[in-house]
Specification:
With about 180 residues, this protein is mainly alpha-helical. It has six helices and no strands. It has helices spanning about 5-35, 45-65, 70-95, 110-135, 135-145, 160-175. The longest helix is centred in the first third of the chain and has 30 residues, at about 5-35. It starts with 6 loop residues before the first helix and ends with a helix.
Length: about 180
């Protein structure tokens, strides 16, 4: 079986990783001013975000390997939860009269504000384009060709041992 990554999956993988990197940068930008002023390190919040970024990075790896469930999980978490929360915060900022980026908690002039604005634009663009590319026809063919034997929740795999599932799925993919 040819496991070459189609360009759509390769670009989607890169964009998901870019969105995670943007989140890490955003966390750094949010914490840095408080630390510069001598505030305590928010260890709990940083630990939770660290776990989320690590899990997200693992999802991206599983996505690139063709696991069906990782594609859906990335879309639910990064598009459904992450993107919607960013857009909702921006909308609330506009509705309250504070402005788009004030809704996200971005205040003050300077380079930090500019970096946070760039972060938001990069995150939103990366997540939207990655989501679209993850469901283009070439991406669908890639996941269909690589994911069946790896997907423990796939209806054809329920109740079969890993060895039985792999043998049967390979026979089906080979046309026999």
């Amino acid at each position: 079986m040819d496991r070459t990554l189609p360009s759509q999956v390769r670009w989607s993988t890169f964009l998901w990783a870019s969105a995670i990197a943007a989140g890490i940068i955003e966390t750094s930008l949010a914490v840095a001013p408080g630390l510069a002023e001598g505030a305590a390190v928010p260890w709990l919040a940083l630990s939770v975000r660290g776990l989320l970024y690590t899990f997200s990075a693992l999802l991206v790896v599983w996505f690139a390997r063709g696991h069906h469930w990782s594609r859906v999980t990335l879309v639910v978490l990064m598009t459904g939860v992450g993107l919607v929360s960013v857009l909702a915060s921006m909308g609330l900022g506009v509705l309250s009269g504070l402005g788009v980026f004030a809704g996200l908690g971005y205040e003050g002039p300077g380079a930090a504000l500019a970096l946070r604005v760039v972060h938001t634009v990069v995150y939103v663009a990366a997540v939207v384009v990655a989501t679209v590319m993850a469901f283009l026809p070439a991406s669908g063919r890639y996941f269909a060709a690589t994911g069946v034997e790896d997907d423990p929740l796939h209806s054809e795999n329920v109740g079969r041992s890993d060895v039985e599932g792999t043998v049967i799925d390979r026979a089906l993919l080979a046309g026999g």
